[in-house]
Amino acid sequence: MIDYDSIRNLPSMFFDRARQRGEEPFLASKGGSEWKTLSWKEVARQVSALSRGLRELGVEPGDRVAIISENRPEWMIADMAIMSSRAISVPAYTTNTEDDHFHILSDSGAKLAIVSTAKLAEKLVPAIQRSPDTHTLIAMEAPTISAQGARVVGWAEVLEAGSALRDDTVEMVSAISRADTSCIIYTSGTGGRPKGVILSHGAILCNCKGAYDLLRKLPDFTENGERFLSFLPLSHSYEHTAGLHFAASIGAEIYYAQGIDRLVSNMAEVSPTIMTAVPRLYEAIHGRILHGVQQSGGMKRMMFMKAVELGRLRHENPAGLSGSQNLFDSLLDKLVRAKVAERFGGRLKAFVSGGAPLNPEIGTFFLALGVRILQGYGQTESAPVISCNPVEGIRIHTVGLPLSDVSVRIADDGEILVRGELVMDGYWNNPEATAEVLRNGWLHTGDIGVIDGDGYLQITDRKKDIIVNTGGDNLSPQRVEGILTIEPQIGQAMVFGDRRPHLVALLVPETELFENVTDETELHRALSEAVDRVNKKLSTIERIRKFVIAGEPFTTENEMMTPSMKIRRHVILKKYGMELEALYGG
Length: 586
Known about the structure:
Elements: H1 10-21, E1 25-31, E2 34-39, H2 40-56, E3 64-68, H3 73-84, E4 88-92, H4 98-108, E5 112-115, H5 118-130, E6 136-139, E7 151-154, H6 155-163, H7 169-174, E8 181-187, E9 195-200, H8 201-215, E10 227-230, H9 237-249, E11 253-256, H10 263-270, E12 274-277, H11 279-296, H12 298-316, H13 323-343, E13 350-353, H14 360-368, E14 373-378, E15 385-388, E16 401-402, E17 407-410, E18 415-419, E19 426-427, H15 431-437, E20 438-439, E21 442-451, E22 457-462, E23 467-468, E24 474-475, H16 477-484, E25 490-496, E26 503-509, H17 511-516, H18 520-535, E27 544-549, H19 563-566, H20 569-582
Parallel strand pairs: 1-11, 3-4, 3-5, 5-6, 6-7, 10-11, 12-13, 13-14, 26-27
Antiparallel strand pairs: 1-2, 8-9, 9-19, 14-15, 15-16, 17-18, 18-21, 20-21, 21-22, 23-24, 25-26
């Protein structure tokens, strides 16, 4: 058992695990055709050296240091080294524009930035040149863009300089308390400039404790024996906590995927036991599996669909299968479900789903095939996990039970309120926004929900996203969008119609349809048929009367997020608002 309450801070937790694990593998990435691993001892050495190198460059306790990098071992090393210097890590998305970088650098007052590739430096360097506080750039690859006005230092150079200094990292780390700030993670929310969420070491450790209490009930769960495959951006609080710090806390191995396009092949190579993912991944795999089954046809298709049917019945009513059904279902375990498991590497114990709502139909599909999906819920402001489905007793239409040491209640207006060590200390340089969401120790999430008699939390809407039509009916855009995106022809959807007589939609065709159907009339027909199928499942007031087709996928702060909760509606409406309004003209 791990006593998370006694852990003082994240670096001390890491160095303790490194001393225990020594030469055993910790971080792995693929270069060329081979996976290359770094041992716990080597990672600890580099973290310590980089920490001393940062301080040699003038980084002091409380200073902010930005990280702009794709997922790779150096990301983790940089994050831990910054905290080991008693400084504050400021992750930034690799998809950020120059203006995005400038806002984060100037708002946080970052003294220094760390960048991985020359390509990423192209948008970062101009932002540094405009920033009043950021004067030094540590580059893993030499930038190809002129960095005039900024000091550029090589990653290897900083490690070498730090290695030559007296190793006082343990002394530095021992001075960090749970209440000290570990990182500032910028989140865009639903509008306005991104806000910097201040998270303490204790907030993330609280999340790690909750995740441990949840996942240690997995079959054959072992400390120092799990393997994670990380592909969500480490700059996102979900992966930062669940895929990095929690994984490190239990002594797990972390493999960094080569990208979403190679994720399935990476899973087969790595054989992960636990993965954190977002609904968009499940939707993509769901579509790919069904496409392959339809192509195969015949007996193979029949057995697959029967496995889904019986698996669904078993999940929804464990005592509901007859003797003959149980016998056939056991046979399908070997003929169908075992092959599905192989696609995920053969050792997967659980997918943990978060970041956006998981459509219950998608979740039940995988559960029926023997793939355990634990849907959870959270926000960056809560470090980020608030609740998750337990290993036993999954209710896929809910987001499960509150984690350990987390209090959840429903306000009079239906808003979900959260309290505990996991809650942020506030928004950086933004007391007004802080006061709006932190009141009397409770985080006001902005989400609407209900808690059932067994304590399971169900999200029903976003407080600010409810559509009220001209008839006074309250409609949930998330519900309609979720049903729309189940259709294989629809990749993304946004529903529109507040203070209007009926709903219309903006649709992004599924990628294969978008690429292969060039005739506009045929494309519109395919989407119309999909919308017609959806409308049969909806009440009269929820039905989509008309739609427009987006010319490209919606962009979000994390492109793997589904549009339902994370979509930046204000940006999309700027681009497509007039087209949507025009649908009401005739």
